[in-house]
Amino acid sequence: MTQLITHACTTLMNVDALTEQQCRAELKSLQEQSFVKDIQLIQLKKTNSRLNHMLENLCDTFIEESFSKLHAELHRMSVFLQEQRAAAKAAAARKVRR
Fold first, then answer.
1. Distance of CA 78 to the CA centre of its chain
2. Would you call 19 helix, strand, or coil by DSSP?
């Protein structure tokens, strides 16, 4: 599944033109955004680790020439992928209805 990868960059702003209250509000907002990004990074690292482990297992199974196990694992992964795609499509449909 290919997805568009987006990355939010910090806005360039002239802090000298802001009041102290505005600077504090911006700092608070940036801290909150930073925390959300940290959580996303943790989740992505977990996903990356899981996918690396799965790929390593598939390669090991192939090296062992255990093709029936390889086929069974690929089938299991395909079913899981189809379920994830269906769930994402349903979630997108619910979002559109709102």
1. 19
2. coil
Longest dimension (CA), the chain: 68
Phi and psi at 14, nearest 5°, equal: -90, 95
For residue 77, give Cα distances in angstroms to 24, 53, 63, 81. 48, 13, 19, 6
Instruction: Quote the pTM value.
Output: 0.61
Quick: pLDDT tens for 17-54.
Answer: 888 998 899 899 989 999 999 999 999 999 999 899 99
Structure tokens at 17: 């033109």
Amino acid identity of 72? A
Q: In terms of DSSP H, where are the helices of the chain?
A: 20-63, 67-97
Please give the structure tokens belonging to residue 53.
């482990």
